[in-house]
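not sure who needs this but someone in the group chat was asking about RelA SpoT domain-containing protein from Lacticaseibacillus manihotivorans DSM 13343 = JCM 12514 so here u go. i didnt clean anything up, its just raw.
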Amino acid sequence: MDLTDFVSYYQLCQAAVNEVGTKLENLDADYQLHNAHNPIHHMEARMKDARSLFRKVKAHDLPLTFASIHDHIYDIGGIRVICNYQADVYTVAENLLAQSDITLIRQKDSIKTPKASGYRSLHLVVSVPVFQAKGVKNTPVEIQLRTVGMDTWASLEHKLRYKTDVDADTVAHYAAQLHQYADEMDHMELGMQAIFHALSDQK
């Protein structure tokens, strides 16, 4: 693989993350100024490291070439948006996608249709124009939107799957517990959201 091409593309993906990050920061500032409730709790940007990238290429049975990474891997750069309530997730997604220079490439709603593990999140892959000296390049960025509770759950589930050396039976036991807790948390989140909306309507 040509490392020069990869380094240039990695820099391009970083620039695209910066572009989307600025858009989200502008939305955040607008919400704070004009809304009684800010749907954005906080945001985190990240770039996929080389080890994770190569592991994903291998998992998808792709050749380890720049062309395959460019054409098939859309989450080198990513932003996670953490919200208080599930409705907030869709508000932020709708407001972001309404912007004229954001193009939706792919959307996966694991809130309405959770994964088998219990994982919940709204994943968007968007393309955003990045202006460079040699012209404009539309570049993909992955955006994960989830609630505070979903984010805590996902971090723990990721640690269980990838960051521990416990035996398979223990992993299976904890995974079953996490699945149960995901369902319970979903019920509680919707209940708290209903209370919040009811209180907001009384103002």
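also The radius of gyration is 19 Å. if thats useful
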